[in-house]
Amino acid sequence: MKIVGLTGGIACGKSTVSAWLRRQEIAVVDLDEIVRRLQKPRTRVVYELGRSFPGVVDADGCLDRGKLGSLIFNDAAQRRKLNVLMRGHILRAMGLELLGHFLAGTRLVVLDAPLLFETAGLSSICASYVVVGTSSDQQLARLVERDGCDEAAAKAKINAQMPLAAKLQRAHVPVMNLGTVGELEDQLERTVAPALWRRANLWWFLSLPGLFVLWVLVFRGAFLYMLATCLASEEMKCFTDFLDGADADPEPGEA
Questions:
Q1: Is Transferase tagged as a keyword (predicted)?
Q2: DSSP secondary structure of 145-185
Q3: How far apart, in whole angstroms, are the C-alpha atoms of residue 71 and residue 57?
Q4: Phi, psi at residue 68, to the nearest 5°?
Q5: In this predicted model, what pLDDT tens digit does every residue of 125-141 receive, in sequence order?
Q6: Which of 58, 66, 140, 214 gets the most CB atoms within 10 Å of its CB?
Q7: Rg of the chain (C-alpha set)
Q8: Per-residue confidence at 21, pLDDT binned at 50, 70, 90?
Q9: Tens-digit pLDDT profile for residues 29-41
Q10: Which DSSP category does 75 fall into?
């Protein structure tokens, strides 16, 4: 099973890329979706957040993401605190989804992870990285439009993340989203999809069905080798017996 990490800067178009991959019937494990499931009302995670960040959970057990966001984007210590609290829950849920694909024999899985490089050990399970980027001006404009905030708030959100340039330096497949959605999708079809599927058939052998096939091939090969060895040994024994008989002295009265 080949795992490819997908990440990028905020408001750069990673979600558009992820949606396009799904339409191509490529399996995607989306950590944002996992977080949304974990943070549904009255869940264990929400109550843990309420205890750690007073005021972000209301009386009905619903998380106020706006309040939580304002806390973490302006305070690096609070971001670290949130990351530590959420990491274990996210990784367990992610592991279960990846296990399902491993058991099913999925050839290619894209791990959609905003904090792919920031989360310890997460990037190490990926065979390669796809990083979605854009220009700084377009990123700022898109974020202002998307979140309905002013430029100062948008810049604070951008600066709270790992620099986009640093992410792009680590990319095996960089994707620059500088135009329309149609142009982005054309780029994905021409360059990204072939790169994702490269050697995916070989990686399939690292799934449960693939490992079973390998085991069968190895067992079959070992069995055939043993059979050939036994046959060769039996033929050699017959040949040596024949030679021993030909070399033996004739019995008295013969000749």
A1: yes
A2: HHHT--HHHHHHHHHTSPPHHHHHHT-SEEEE--S-HHHHH
A3: 13
A4: -65, -40
A5: 999 999 999 999 999 99
A6: 140
A7: 30
A8: very high
A9: 999 999 999 999 9
A10: -
Give, in order, the Cα–Cα distances in Å from 123 to each of 35, 70, 120, 140, 177.
18, 27, 8, 27, 22
Overall pTM surpassing 0.85 (yes/no): no
Containing 56, the helix (H) or strand (E) segment is: none
In percent, how much of the chain has pLDDT > 90? 67
Q: State the pairing for strand pair 27-30/108-112.
A: parallel
Smallest CA-to-CA distance from 53 within 78, 86, 35, 83 is with: 78
Give me the pLDDT at residue 255, please: 45
CB 52 within 8 A of CB 132: no
The set of residues, in sequence order, having a beta carbon less than 8 Å from that of 97 and lying 6+ positions away, is: 29, 34
CB 41 within 8 A of CB 63: yes
Best CA proximity match to 132, nearest among 32, 5, 6: 6
Residue with tokens 């960040």: 53
